[in-house]
Amino acid sequence: MSVKDTLECRIEYVIWQNEENGYTVCEMSSDDLGDFIGVGYLPFINAGDIIKAEGTWETHIEYGEQFKIGLYEKVQPRREEDIYLYLSSGAVKGIGESTAKKIIDLFGAESLDIIRDDPLKLAKIKGISEKKAVEIHEDYIKQQGVQDIVIFLSRYGINSSFALQRNAYVRA
Question: Is the pTM of the predicted complex or chain greater than 0.90?
Fold first, then answer.
């Protein structure tokens, strides 16, 4: 029998993700449990994300113990190293490893707040124009909006595959 659990955990590494429906296999960690494997429909998950996940512990016949996630919500990273991991993962268009480091070096734990609420401050960083700062902000906001919709719909039994298809249709 599987045991239900709710965890706050960090996505360490995305092992595999189906881009069409968001099914994901990832290495996760929590302060209490250490490292473990998480599986489920987790669109928009990237290394460095912190999530609050509801799921069950199950034993896969081939891969062993896994945390099968039914519902999740993202929690804004609070530690600089988590923010760096998230930004350097390519989750936000226009930010790679070196730009993520520059942002963290200048804004520290406030980096995501700056991107969301005061993006023109990013233009203080060499290589980021005001135009690029606005583009980074817009991509970050768009992602947050789509993530919020997918998570909301999943609570009502509408799977992420359906929501992602609708998002692709809207973008076309």
Answer: no
Using CA atoms, how far residue 44 sits from 19, 91, 94, 112, in Å, is 9, 8, 16, 16
Mean pLDDT value of segment 79-106: 90
Q: Mean pLDDT across the chain, nearest whole number?
A: 85
Beta bridge partners of 95: none
For residue 168, pLDDT over 60 is answered with no
Name all domains of the chain by residue range, CATH numbers in brackets.
3-75 (2.40.50.140), 78-172 (1.10.150)
Residue 170 has pLDDT above 50, yes or no: no
Q: Which single residue is written with the structure tokens 């490292």?
A: 35
Alpha-helix runs per DSSP H in 25-129: 80-88, 97-107, 111-117
**Spatial CB neighbours of 49, under 8 Å, sequence gap ≥ 6:** 10, 11, 74, 77, 86, 91
Token pair 């768009």 is found at 142
